[in-house]
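Dear U.,

Please find below the material for section 3 of the report. The protein was modelled together with magnesium ion; I have listed the sequence and SMILES used, followed by the predicted complex structure.
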Amino acid sequence: MIALTDINRLYRSDEIETTALRAIDLSINQGEFVAIMGPSGCGKSTLLNILGTIDRPTGGTYRFQDENVTALSDAKLATFRRDHLGYIFQNFNLIDDLTVEENITLGLVYRKMAGSSRRERVAEVMDRVGIAHRARHFPSQLSGGQQQRAAIARAIIGKPDLILADEPTGNLDTENGAQVMDILTQLNNEGATIVMVTHSPSHADLARRRIDMLDGRIVISAETMI
Ligand SMILES: Nc1ncnc2c1ncn2[C@@H]1O[C@H](COP(=O)(O)OP(=O)(O)O)[C@@H](O)[C@H]1O
Ligand SMILES: [Mg+2]
């Protein structure tokens, strides 16, 4: 599904150069659940952002389902993201002055969909993550766990093939973290491919494969034994 070949990402500011990723080769198959671990600053978010086409590599190639993503224009990338990707972030990234329902509906923006089927789909995903009873609330009125479940609903509303999650449980207590992991595991069981950055070894164990990074490189990439 995904093939990264010799991916590099160099950040240049006035005098400082930072190499965030060095010579990354990585293949991910359809239906995998991959956990990425490693110390702060080792390039995990940069790798996830490149997979998510939020960032472009300074070298190397990214192929997704036999399409050369690296060669796509910004306009084509926007369509690519809409059709294939869902994002979940550590800090939820909900819009404060929109309700839960409105935030989730945003995940369908740029999709031509009749109002009734749109409302139906929003209701379906709110149910799915157990947030329907908070549909009219604003993010500030929700617990962290509820905010993250709303953010997951927004991410999955377009039925993405690939879900990218950057420390999705990083701001949550144990119980809410476990709920988020349950939802991700279920989505993976239903066929979604998931790549998740985490600092939690127990959450990484729920993935089927773990990748360890250090200083912009992949140091171990092993199938976890199940
Ligand atoms: N926009 C940026 N400009 C300059 N350096 C950056 C930028 N984003 C990340 N970096 C650097 O790239 C390296 C990897 O960062 P990141 O991918 O965020 O690490 P992680 O997610 O593993 O903590 C770090 O050294 C970081 O300081
Ligand atoms: Mg990070």
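For the text of the report, you could mention the following: The helical segments are 44-51, 74-84, 100-106, 115-128, 144-156, 174-189, 201-206.

Regards,
Y.
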